[in-house]
Amino acid sequence: MSMGHRLRLTLRSVVAACALAAAFCLMSSATGGVAYAADPVAANVVLKTAWLRPAAAGMAEAQAYVDIVSETDLELIGASTPFAKRVELVRVTMKNDVPQQEVVKSMPVPGGKTTRLAYRGSHLRLIEITTSFGNATKVPLTLAFKSPEGKDVSATIDAQVRGLLLPQQMPAALAQDPEPAAKEAPPAVPK
Are residues 14 and 67 both part of a single domain? Predict the structure, then answer.
């Protein structure tokens, strides 16, 4: 094979690799609200539709929700965010038609199914909110997993904040306390 022929093959390989990378970038930017695992070996974890309600700095807790999809069985072993001091995994079960909440060290994530951490169900509990977040804020959540082989896997997504407004987000006219109603003079009593 001549040097010129090898150079053309190498150049074609480089162009093909660049085209593939560009297509991947376009595809990832179009997924909107979906995050994939950062580790290429563990790229089988997808986080979707993450959200939470607004919360103010100093609040004791807030709940976050997310859908987890994995090609293989995993164990959810933790979560973190820069907006809270720590994050707990909360499993919700029903006992005599009453929801029971329990903080757990891990949760199974079966392969090939969607594991839903949802409103009124199992969820993530952000403890000791350090930064206020209101509507339209993106709150980064990183979930940590363990594979059956013992490998650490993580995936990050920006959770969308939606719901009631925080006091500092309210329009000035609505945030002020209304003026107390003027008292009427009592009717005169005839003597």
Answer: no
